[in-house]
């Protein structure tokens, strides 16, 4: 009776009103949820590195802008932390809906002197390069934190180096209750980010409440993933595979009670680091698709053996793949998901969740036309509009705006080149041997 506005539709109109004060516990819950959402937005802001690492910051801003336009219902929930670490390989839980299609568990890195020294070195590099943005990092991906029995020792090191305790999400809080309690005590001690338990079934929920007191769970968000819940499943990973199999069988592809345009569970715009394999990738969220079935894109990958090698790997990924300016050799075309409509002074681009109106009296309409055709490079479009009377500065500024907004299609520069026919090979040979 004290919480009626939380689930009774006829009471919703009283929330946050004078009449609503009859239900102070419901009001307290509303305030708590508002604070959670506000904190989520603050994490997105905390990942900015302007003035610390401007080249990376420009790349990340571009990925944020693109995501807000491209990810649909997932967009607001994606906070774009700059790094995620895996402290084990694979996962023991095996959720049927895993948006990252986590592989079977193959082991973890123990907290030995050697591993601890490498770990502290790698985290220190992140802190040195990106400052407080490193506080957005967390220590799982296609893994479960509780699969590493030393997980709490790794994240406490992270706190002492960066000043923030990484957020923990686990679907296995009952696997090792002593480890889970050590994680929760770190939250009590350092008071940083609220942790999360993924609840897989109603039986699982009941066991969690049996195992932990309300006081122990005060810093835990219970994320309802059970079939009866209103939580939507992202169209990526194993959930995507399930949907496709149901469609192929001619059955309903509904896999959750609530269906929204939830496109990915990936959230990092930055670095995905496997400590067991000593590999770092530059990644960013994209909608789950045949091309990107796990809901994120890998721009590049490097290996490392020590902290110095890790720093070199990060520097090389940024130098190779972040592009402070739009490369002139790129194809001049908009993202494939954008609908195009010409306007008198520019054009309108429509995505699954946003409408972009871009205008420029000098060259807006012409650039839109040429980009929509998509048969030239960026450099060729710039040359065309300059030949037609626009200034080089106007053209450059206009393309900077399109690029920073995340509206230009970014080609996969890691893709292997298409095989050349004999004529193309001859042209290449001639060009390579011709004098400058």
What percentage of residues falls in helices of 4 or more residues? 25-40%
User: What's the rounded overall pLDDT mean?
Assistant: 90
> What summary fits the major beta sheet?
4 strands, mixed
The end-to-end distance, rounded to whole angstroms, is 83 Å
Radius of gyration: 25 Å
The computed structural class is alpha/beta
- What is the β-strand count? 12
Strand order of the biggest β-sheet: 1-7-8-9
Number of helices: 12
Written as H for each helix and E for each strand, in order along the chain, the element string is HHEEEHHEHEHEHEEEHEEEHHHH
What ranges have pLDDT less than 50 throughout 5 or more consecutive residues? 415-436
Taken from the alpha-carbon principal axes, the silhouette is globular
Strand content: 5-15%
Oligomer: single chain
